[in-house]
Each structure stands twice: as structure tokens, then as C-alpha cells.
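Most newcomers find our protein records easier to grasp once they have seen one. Sequence and backbone structure share a record, each on its own labelled line. To make this concrete, we reproduce a full record directly below:
***
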Amino acid sequence: MSKGPELSLQEAVFSHLQQDTNVQNALGSPVRLYDDPPSSPMYPFVSFGRHQFRPLDGDQAALIEQELSLHVWSRYSGKTEGLQVLQALREAVQSIPASMDDHVLIDLRVVFADTLRAKDGRVFQSILRLRALTQPIS
């Protein structure tokens, strides 16, 4: 049974970010990147957020468009730490390998970034949204 395009992309992003030196410098080693963050995480950390999927089937190939959000959480005073993590992530995702289990990554780009103070007033949240085009391996 295949993993499906969403899990294939998430695992590729996770694996690549775990190995990136700049991301390790920003988030520790192993990189504090969670699908489901622990109840008392060490800051800063990143969590997977919203993940959307849209088939873009064409005449020649079955393409899948995905949008995946990464959420950066920081307790540092001000936005600086979150923005530094955001930049490390932005640079790292540009070199994610095309081969992903049962899919091929055709294109990956950053389409949105934002930083804001969370509701509790102590934590800053940065969001990095990625747009990926993938294709199943036949």
C-alpha cells in the first residue's frame, strides 16, 4: 500500500530538514520539528500545520498540487528568533530531493510567510507555506 502524496511530501520535508545544518543550528539536533508537538516543548520549535491537496490531472500526467504549512514557535523577546528560523527553513526547502517514496517532487516553492504574536502574548508564531507539485511514480 502506498503512503499517498501527502505523507510522502511530509516525510520528505521532515527528513530533509533534520539533515540541514542551518536548520540544526536554529532548532537543535535532532531538529525540533513535530507533527504533534509535546505538551512542554523546548523553544523554538516547528510543527506541521495545514496540508491541502488538489489533483491537477492533465492529458499527459497526473499532477497533484499540495500546500503544506510549517509553523515556527518562539518565546524569544521579539520576532528575531522566529524570523531566523523562518529563513533557515526557507533556504533548506529549496534543496529537497525530487525522489519521494512513491511520488516525484516536480516543483516546490515558498508561497507565503508571516510572523505574529500568539494569543498568549508570550509566544511568536511564524508561518511558512509551501506549494508543491508532485506526480505519482507509475
Q: What stands out?
A: The mean pLDDT is 92. The chain is about 25% helix and 40% strand. The domain at 5-136 is CATH 3.30.2000.30 (STM4215-like).
